[in-house]
Design a protein that fits this description.
The protein has 167 residues and is an alpha/beta fold. The protein has one domain: Ribonuclease H-like superfamily/Ribonuclease H (Nucleotidyltransferase, domain 5). 37% of the residues lie in helices and 18% in strands. It contains six helices and six strands. It has a six-stranded mixed beta sheet with strand order 4-3-2-1-5-6, with helices on both faces. The radius of gyration is 15 Å and the shape is globular. The protein starts with 7 loop residues before the first strand and ends with a helix.
């Protein structure tokens, strides 16, 4: 698989609810193609869903930054090259990023790339992404914490590199 562009950032977010009208972003993990990383946990007063209370909140251990500070750090990390945001099932990650930074204030290309759709188009079951595909590609998923935004972005990058044959 030859990608259209190498100007990409692997991206994942964790948030309080699947309902973007009620939810707020809790954490952001970004990994550049070269492996450079940024991880932020955000101050948040939104009420988390029961699933988030059980599965996400206990994993948040870092210092919290304000939404404004998170926006500044993401913008600085991403730079001005307007990279494509690559996320697994990007609809939620993109929406929560736009809520955080504004539709015109985020530093990414306006077209977010959905990795699940790439897998689907290659006749790979997107739901097998972590359990089967990563293992078939020789990736040790035991070193990653599921539903940690940075680890999710890391494993996405690792799978992408294997599928594209990039070093």
């Amino acid at each position: 698989m030859k990608p259209f562009s190498d100007n990409i950032v692997f991206y994942d977010t964790e948030f309080t609810s699947l309902n973007p009208y009620e939810g707020e972003i809790l954490s952001i993990g970004l990994v550049k193609l070269n492996g450079e990383e940024l991880y932020l946990e955000l101050e948040c007063d939104a009420k988390p869903s029961d699933w988030v209370k059980e599965n996400i909140i206990p994993t948040l251990k870092g210092p919290r930054v304000s939404r404004e500070e998170a926006g500044r750090q993401v913008t600085k990390f991403v730079g001005d090259s307007r990279p494509y945001m690559v996320a697994f099932v990007n609809s939620f990650d993109a929406i929560y990023t736009y809520k955080l930074m504004g539709i015109d204030g985020h530093p990414f290309n306006w077209i977010p790339i959905d990795f699940a759709s790439i897998l689907f188009a290659r006749d790979i079951d997107p739901e097998s992404y972590l359990n089967k595909l990563a293992k078939d590609l020789g990736i040790d998923t035991s070193k990653y914490n599921v539903h940690n935004a940075l680890d999710d972005a890391r494993v996405l990058r690792e799978v992408y590199l294997k599928l594209t044959g990039k070093p």
